[in-house]
Amino acid sequence: MSPSKKPTPTLISRFASWEGFLALITLGVLLAAALFVPNFLSTFNISQAIAGVSERALIVLPMALLIIAREIDLSVASTLALTSVIFGMLIQANVPLGVSLSLTLIAGAALGAFNGVLVTRLKLPSLVVTLGTLAMFRGIGYILLGSGSVNIFPDALTNFGIDNVLDSPLPWTIVPFLVLAPIFAIVLQKTPTGRRIYAIGGSPETARYSGINLPRTILLLFVTSGITSAIAGIVFTARLANARANNAVGLELDVITIVLLGGVSVFGGKGKLTGVLLALVLIATIRNCLGLMQIGGDAQGTVIGLLLITSLLISNAASRMYDLLGVWLATPKRE
């Protein structure tokens, strides 16, 4: 009796992968929104929806890499707010725009390095460290600027915040993400640095014994997170023409939801930016539709929180089912 032919696990994975499932869900939500949500397809709404996700799109990039490496940065929204305050105060002090931008990025790198040093040198859990700096960085913003705000900026910055690229519905505020996303994807999937990140997330001890410098790699990830959050802070400031300490409150929830919904394992070592970008589109579409239906921010937060829990449950169940399917397919069957 000869074994019967069966689809290979590789073939099944192409159609049953989390990214494939997420793509179908995202297309379904986009189609439903186009058919049933008034004004969803208007040029103005598309432009506003893309602009509104600009900061989240930037921050999910380093967050994905951190979670793959079994770390996390809960302080990203506070880093965004503090760098926004620093940027606003520099502009208020008549520092040239180019110098202000450079100093803001340096400030973001310093904030990220502060997190990274506490994690790598003092061996503190990143969850605890960044939970503390989540409050500390925003508190520093209040110390520097109080409850006030900076609202006067150079025309070059405000034009960047409100204008579109040529005559397209694509706002300039999404351009930094479009530039950085391919770079992050190439680093993660095609370079030794990306392989080190996956190795650290898969097994830190094994990675250490194989010669990978864990502290240096993790510190670099936190510095990258700080710089990218600073870029998001500049984009946020330009988009709203406003720098204040309470900018982007709660943004970290959306970012973490997007990363985990995108298929990045909360236990590290697994995930691709492809799934994360699909999740970004899905979350942005859901938020936009809720806004068009006059559903407020608190209710939107509830939906996003539920989506985070659901994504974890579905991802866990799908992983188990796929493992069982792989075992079944690998078992020879006789006619």
Question: Would you mind describing this structure in some detail?
Answer:
With about 325 residues, the chain is mostly helical. The chain has one domain: ABC transporter involved in vitamin B12 uptake, BtuC. It has 15 helices and no strands. The protein starts with 8 loop residues before the first helix and ends in a 5-residue tail after the last helix. The mean pLDDT is about 90.
Which key features would you list for this structure?
335 residues, mainly alpha, ABC transporter involved in vitamin B12 uptake, BtuC, 15 helices, globular
The number of strands is 0
Largest sheet: none
Number of helices: 15
Name the beta content range.
under 5%
Provide a concise account of the structure shown.
The protein has 335 residues and is mostly helical. The chain is 73% helix and 0% strand.
Could you give the topology of this structure?
Layout: H1 9-16, H2 18-36, H3 43-52, H4 54-68, H5 76-92, H6 97-120, H7 126-145, H8 155-162, H9 175-190, H10 192-202, H11 204-209, H12 214-240, H13 251-261, H14 273-292, H15 297-330
